[in-house]
Write a structure and sequence with these properties.
alpha/beta, five-stranded mixed sheet, two-stranded parallel ribbon, 5 helices, 7 strands, 40% helix
Length: 166
Amino acid sequence: MSTTDEARATWLTQEAFDRLKAELEELKNNRTVIAAEINARREEGDLKENGGYHAAKEEQGKQEGRIRQLEDLLRSARVGEAPTTATVVALGTVITVHFDDDPDDAETFLLGSREISSTTDLTVYSPESALGAAILDHKPGDKVSYEAPNGRTINVTVAKLEPFAG
């Protein structure tokens, strides 16, 4: 599997995977509670003016969306330790980039799933982000351009790579 193919998967530590799996199970188990709440609110009468009913339906929609998100994420997850060496930008590497328009402006971050961000003090960029996608498979010293969400072209230099220490 190439590094680019691996980036299409979601890299998670075992701790993050277990936490997300537990969250998914809790949300699935809570479906009956939400359904009971909706039924109770429906029994109160006129649905047009029933704020409790609409709030319960909205909560159900949010919960189902999170369930789908977690199922997709866990289905594509690649669980394990971060790489022990870092020669090219890949999932599980800590990258330092310098912004070419201000060489003193550097940013260090982990390339991985945002779901892992609660387990580290590092900023986490996904490989699907503009910067993450642009630097994937690059080496220290490589200059890369990417388009920011505001449409501006940003030039960076990959300065340093190291494996994620967790």
